[in-house]
Write a structure and sequence with these properties.
This protein is α/β, with parallel strands linked by helices. It is built from 17 helices and 22 strands. It has helices at 45-52, 75-80, 98-103, 115-128, 145-158, 175-190, 202-208, 231-239, 293-300, 323-328, 338-341, 349-354, 369-383, 399-411, 430-445, 457-463, 485-493; strands at residues 7-16, 19-29, 34-38, 60-65, 68-70, 83-86, 163-167, 194-198, 211-216, 219-225, 257-266, 270-278, 282-286, 308-313, 316-317, 331-334, 362-363, 366-367, 418-422, 449-454, 466-471, 474-480. The termini are far apart.
Length: 505
């Protein structure tokens, strides 16, 4: 007799007022199964997870865990049933030890625990996720980001997880750290735990998961074994149509040099980076986290005081030691962390769209409400931001609309001739990603030089006309035309460095 499903949802629905967030959603997850859950923002993934973990009560339908029907009134009840979610935002305390973090939030932990017992428990959990070489007494803050993610998974296992939900666990990790997380996930699944893996990174979903569920508009749009499934098929299921690819890899004659960088240095983080960037072209600077790609863009944006080297923009020497001077010279910089230092989350979309253009919407220091509204509407329409959301706080928009708001400040600014974008689609779903790529492609078509840094190889292949690869602070390759996938992988993961190599396909 076969064992019951670990998780079984049947016709689960959930509404918020007139909005139907989940509609007759049914899903079955077996023991030891790793299932990918995909869908653009607003597709219903978060609502489904919140129902399963007890944060929300469904309006209808049934939930069964190991064959038994359950009704969770709180996350504590779900955790007691073995359902644990590891969110993309790490919820640990760096100043505490690993062992102390492993114990945080456990519902069955008493007031008094013997230190020897706690240490043995911590060691066993660390072994399960491949961190047995770390002592439980070490401070969590001494671990890398990827290792801290593994501690999060270990903590979930310590809570007796039978169903482990991983929500975007690799969003900020390097390739090496991602592989360690994948190894741990496969290990715990083999031990009998079921895993629901939520990610916008479709390549990772196909590589890790046994099966894939795609959601669209609150419904289950597709279920399939991962084997034989392509990323394009997933995108089509998520959007309801096959998206139009960002075109243009023609490597014909370039326009004049817009930005000339000669021996740019930032301590040991960037070592003698030199390149000529042309007008109307899209350049992708790629590397794993810490390779130097982001540091190059931040230095060119005037945000790194210790940066050294010669930079020319439109034939004139450029001082890169002041963000104001860089902006006045015609360069715009878009951060990789829009929530921390890109947007004013509590202010309106309109105010965020006009924040860098106040001189155009004011007179004698007083902002004209009409001019501000007209300018914001024009930029919103250009960037694809919903114009009916201009009066609302930008912080409540989806990640894609927030990013388009940030980019919209610059792509329609006639004073900006070179746009520096650090991780243009971080935290953005597949629909938003395509829209952002189109926005940057249009900027290049209009004559702007677009230079973006990315740790996402797929984004490099989709968007860049010329790809520049970096490792350990050095440029190791440059490719134009049809970008060679294998050579890019080799540059980013295997080559040990040395003299830069210029390759034009």
């Amino acid at each position: 007799m076969s064992s019951p499903a670990r998780l079984e949802l049947r016709s689960v629905s959930k509404s918020f007022g007139a909005v139907r967030a989940l509609s007759d959603a049914s899903l079955t997850l077996a023991p030891k199964e790793i299932r990918g859950l995909c869908g653009h923002n607003g597709a219903g993934k978060s609502t489904l997870i919140n129902v399963v973990t007890g944060l929300l009560s469904p309006d209808g339908g049934t939930i069964r865990i190991d064959g038994e029907q359950v009704h969770f009134g709180s996350p504590r009840e779900a955790q007691s049933a073995g359902i644990v979610c590891v969110d993309q935002e790490l919820s640990m305390v760096s100043s505490l030890t690993i062992a102390e973090n492993l114990s945080l939030g456990s519902v069955d932990r008493g007031l008094f625990v013997r230190r020897a017992t706690d240490r043995a428990r911590s060691r066993a959990l660390l072994e399960r996720v491949g961190l047995g070489h770390h002592a439980p007494e070490e401070l969590l803050g001494a671990l890398s980001l990827g290792e801290r993610q593994l501690v999060e998974i270990a903590r979930a296992l310590g809570r007796g997880a039978r169903l482990l939900i991983l929500d975007e666990p690799t969003a900020t990790l390097t390739d090496f750290e991602i592989e360690r997380v994948f190894d741990a996930v496969r290990r715990v699944a083999q031990e009998g735990c079921s895993v629901l893996f939520v990610s916008h990174r479709l390549g990772e979903v196909l590589r890790l998961c046994h099966t894939v569920t795609v959601m669209r508009d609150g419904r289950i749009a597709k279920e399939s074994p991962a084997t034989g499934l392509s990323a394009d098929q997933l995108v089509e299921a998520m959007l309801g149509e096959q998206p139009e690819r960002v075109a243009a890899r023609a490597a014909g004659d370039h326009a004049d040099v817009r930005l000339r960088v000669d021996r740019l240095r930032v301590g040991t983080r960037v070592r003698e980076f030199s390149y000529d960037f042309h007008a109307g072209h899209i350049y992708g600077i790629a590397g794993q986290v810490g390779a130097g790609a982001s540091e190059v863009l931040r230095a060119l944006g005037g945000l790194v005081p210790e940066a050294a080297g010669r930079v020319e923009h439109d034939g004139r020497a450029l001082s890169i030691h002041s963000p104001g001077r860089v902006k006045r010279a015609g360069l715009g910089f878009v951060t990789n962390d829009r929530k921390f230092d890109g947007l004013f989350l509590g202010r309106s979309v309109q105010e965020n769209l006009t924040a860098t253009r106040l001189g155009e919407v004011s007179r004698l220091g007083v902002i004209s409400a009409t001019a501000e509204r007209d300018h914001a509407r024009r930029v919103a329409e250009h960037a694809g931001v919903p114009v009916d959301r201009l009066a609302g706080a930008v912080g409540v928009l989806s990640g894609g609309n927030q990013q388009r708001t940030l980019l919209g400040r610059y792509t329609l600014d006639p004073t900006i001739r070179t746009l520096l974008v650090d991780e243009p689609t971080r935290g953005v779903d597949v629909g938003g990603r395509i829209a952002i790529h189109r926005l940057l492609a249009q900027a290049a078509n209009d004559g702007m030089t677009v230079i973006f840094a990315t740790s996402d190889l797929q984004e490099l292949l989709e968007l860049a006309m010329t790809a520049i690869t970096m490792r350990a602070g050095r440029m190791v390759g440059a490719y134009s035309g049809e970008l060679p996938h294998q050579a890019l992988v080799a540059d980013l993961t295997h080559r040990s460095g040395g003299e830069p190599e210029q390759v034009v396909a």
